[in-house]
Design a protein that fits this description.
- This protein is an alpha/beta fold and about 300 residues long.
- It has 2 domains: about 200 residues, TIM Barrel (Alpha-Beta Barrel); about 60 residues, no CATH class.
- The chain is built from 13 helices and 11 strands.
- Strands 1-9-8-6-5-4-3-2 form an 8-stranded parallel beta sheet.
- Helix 5 links the parallel strand 4 and strand 5.
- The longest helix is centred in the C-terminal third of the chain and has 17 residues.
């Protein structure tokens, strides 16, 4: 096996160098434990979820995975980031990934608790800063990914980050099969993070309407909204997302109005499948995701394909 043994598998104690994205409202104990049990690293999304709910999710995952590792993703912009930072220590969470900010102020306490810290970064400058702050690895996430995005593509970002830091780099954004994994490794990454592909996992608890949108998406069904607010987000094209995009373009939707309309829209998509008011966050790679299957089958199939390609 060529690809499956890297500094990431050693660091995290996993079989395959693959992390499931910490997608807000989506990444919970059922999906996280399925990915961890399949040999990857499953993540629970912190988002702005209530602390008691997250404690319960962490404990459920622990019970389901036994001694296998899992992690929690903390959005540093969240109003409860401080509470979450303490919770992962209290509950003995082995890995934390972070987004939307600098986890520097929590780093010492996390390291003291033996937590591996892996920030998600959209630029070389932030990758270097995270390395100096004591990060164990970074996820270099390209603009192809679903949800909040930077401007740099995965193809451009990953090799530049690999050249800039000594710690291992995990590639994210636009990866949905073994070809994407092989390409990421050729760019110098030592692991991958996938979100969109796992939306079609049997264990992913999103509304059936959301799954259908992802599975039926074509290559052109990706749309970015929120550029006017400074928080661009990649979605599946729906009437709602197209309305947001056109309102931003013609100026009829001010940034304040945009924020008002989209408040709670991800939850409406995930839990209710609400096509009129829901934001169905999804990567540009959705056109390659065309069937629902167990997370284990996805992971094994992707790495068999990646191995064959890299063995060439």
């Amino acid at each position: 096996m060529i690809t499956t043994k890297t500094r990431i598998t050693d660091l995290l104690g996993i079989k395959y160098p693959i992390i499931q994205g910490g997608m807000a409202w989506i990444a919970e104990s059922t999906l996280a434990s399925a990915v961890s049990n399949a040999g990857g690293l499953g993540l629970i999304a912190g988002g702005s979820a209530p602390i008691d709910y997250l404690r319960e999710q962490i404990r459920k995952t622990k019970a389901a995975v036994g001694d296998k590792p899992f992690g929690v993703n903390i959005m540093l912009m969240s109003p409860n980031a401080e509470e979450l930072a303490k919770l992962v220590i209290e509950e003995g969470v082995p890995v934390v990934t972070t987004g939307a900010g600098n986890p520097g102020k929590f780093m010492a306490a996390w390291k003291e608790a033996g937590i591996k810290v892996i920030p998600v970064i959209p630029s070389v400058a932030l990758a270097k800063r995270m390395e100096r702050a004591g990060a164990d690895a970074v996820v270099a996430e390209g603009t192809e990914s679903g949800g909040h995005i930077g401007e740099n593509t995965t193809m451009c970002l990953v090799p530049q980050v690999v050249d800039a830091v000594e710690i291992p780099v995990i590639a994210a954004g636009g990866i949905a099969d073994g070809r994407g994994i092989a390409a990421a490794f050729m760019l110098g990454a030592e692991g991958v993070q996938l979100g969109t592909r796992f939306l079609a996992a049997e264990e992913c608890q999103i509304h059936p309407t959301y799954k259908e949108l992802v599975i039926n998406a074509k290559d052109t069904d990706s749309i970015v909204t929120g550029r006017s607010t400074g928080h661009p987000c990649r979605n599946v094209k729906t009437k709602f997302s197209k309305r947001l995009a056109s309102g931003e373009m013609d100026g009829s939707l001010t940034p304040d109005k945009f924020e008002e309309i989209t408040l709670g829209s991800l939850r409406k998509a995930v839990q209710d499948g609400n096509l009129d008011e829901g934001s169905f966050l999804c990567g540009a790679i959705a056109g390659m995701v065309n069937k629902i299957e167990p997370a284990k089958d996805m992971i094994e199939e992707m790495f068999v394909q990646a191995e064959k390609l890299l063995a060439r």
